[in-house]
Every structure is written in C-alpha cells, then in structure tokens.
Structure prediction request, 175 residues.
Amino acid sequence: NLWDYSDKAHPVPRDEGHLADDIARHLKRDLQGRGIAIGCELVVRRGGKGRAPGLRTDIYVTAIVASSRGRDQTDGELATVVIEVKGSWHDEVDSAIRTQLVEGYMREYADSRHGLYVVGDFTCDAWAETEGKKRSLRLGGREALAHRLEAQAVELSRDGIRVRAVVLDTSMPAT
Prediction:
C-alpha cells in the first residue's frame, strides 16, 4: 500500500497521506472499543481570504481520561495526541518536528500537550533514482535520523509538552 508499483522496474513511495492513512487504520484497529477517537486531516485552523493559511493535522487522537473513582467512570477530561507524518524524502524532515508539530499544531491547538512525529524511512535499493531518494539517502540512515529526531523531541518536551519521534522502516520488502 505504501509503494507505487505502476512502473514495476522503478517503484516509488506513495505520498505521505498513504502512510498517515495506514497508521490511522492501525490505531483504529488496535484501539477499537476503548473510548478513543482517531481522525485524519483535522482542521486546527481554517484558512481563507484575509486570514493565515489553514492548518490540518495528519492524525489526531482523542481519549477520555479515566477517573480515579473507577475504570467505568470518567471525569470528563480529554487527552489528545497530534501525530505528524513525514516521508524520508521530505525537505523539512529534520525540522518539521519543531516547526510544524510543536510550533504549529500543538501551539495553535492548546488542548494538545502530546505530540508524535512519525517518519517513514523508504530508503532501499529498489526505490527508483529520484530527487526524493537522494534527499532520503542524505539523512545518514534510519538509526542516525531516529537519534537526531529523538534528541529534538527531548529538547522540545518542556513546559507541559511531551513529544516523541519514531522512524519506521517503510522500505520495500526484499523479494
């Protein structure tokens, strides 16, 4: 689902929306029946004529917080997590954890104190030679990218904000 095989000799990754949809489907399946809502492309701020550009989160998770009175009772509070998804080819993969996730979505939507930055690392030999693949190769590998992003997440986790970074292996399976 994450790769476009229309040119079988030169497959390329699909857009980030496919990865975000795949993650959202996984979360919905795993969290079904737990009072947790998962949405995609939630409008955080509408854009328009004479206004700032709109903001849409990739994935937005809302859960009812359990009460200390017991498992079946709630105190009405909601916990939210904003999930930003990037492909490893993205020009701003190293900086969007700060600029887009924290300074954009989480600051704009004050109810969200928790963020998850997910990068799909599509780097593999089967990927057709494209500018995106060249950008992805410059990241220094999955482990190096994960280390840099998690260091940023630690730095950004302050003043009640909690951020985590995850780099997924979304490379094409070997045949």
